[in-house]
Write a structure and sequence with these properties.
Layout (H helix, E strand, L loop, with lengths): L2 E5 L4 H13 L4 E5 L2 E4 L5 H13 L3 E3 L2 H19 L8 H9 L3 H12 L3 H16 L3
Antiparallel strand pairs: 1-3, 1-4, 2-3
Helix pairs in contact: 3-4, 3-5, 3-6
Length: about 140
């Protein structure tokens, strides 16, 4: 598959940094968004290894296991909701996550808590607090 999953991409600047590394390695990107890169062709093992090393130096990492991918997708959806959508409407987070990730919310919630040691709701609140602090310059 030509999709790479990348941990710790949280903003547009992260997308630019990752894009730059992919360009340096000559990997042709079809699409890039928070946590996910679609390449025009499958990278070789050597290209993937070089990319992984370059990303780690920048605070990112490639994700290979399914559970970690789901966790990263949960985080990216929350970050997108909180930081990048000008939408103050009351959004039912459980419905959004379930529909976008095609899993039951209880499964997502339990997996997140097990891996991250905190709940999805606490992570969501922490992101809202971070946005609020940024807005007032703290």
């Amino acid at each position: 598959m030509n999709i790479l999953f990348i941990k710790n991409m949280v903003c547009n600047r992260c997308i630019m940094v990752v894009q730059n590394e992919l360009d340096k390695l000559g990997l042709n990107v079809k699409n890039i968004k928070l946590g996910e890169v679609v390449l025009s062709k499958e990278p070789t093992a050597e290209e993937k290894n070089k990319l992984d090393k370059a990303l780690v130096l920048l605070g990112f990492e490639l994700i290979d296991d399914k559970k970690s991918r789901i966790i990263e997708k949960i985080k990216n959806i929350i970050i997108e909701l909180v930081h990048h959508q000008n939408n103050d409407a009351k959004t039912n987070l459980s419905d959004v996550l379930s529909s976008q990730l095609h899993h039951d919310y209880n499964y997502l919630s339990n997996l997140f808590s097990e891996i991250e040691g905190t709940t999805i709701e606490k992570y969501f609140i922490a992101q809202k607090n971070r946005k609020g602090k940024r807005a007032i310059g703290i």
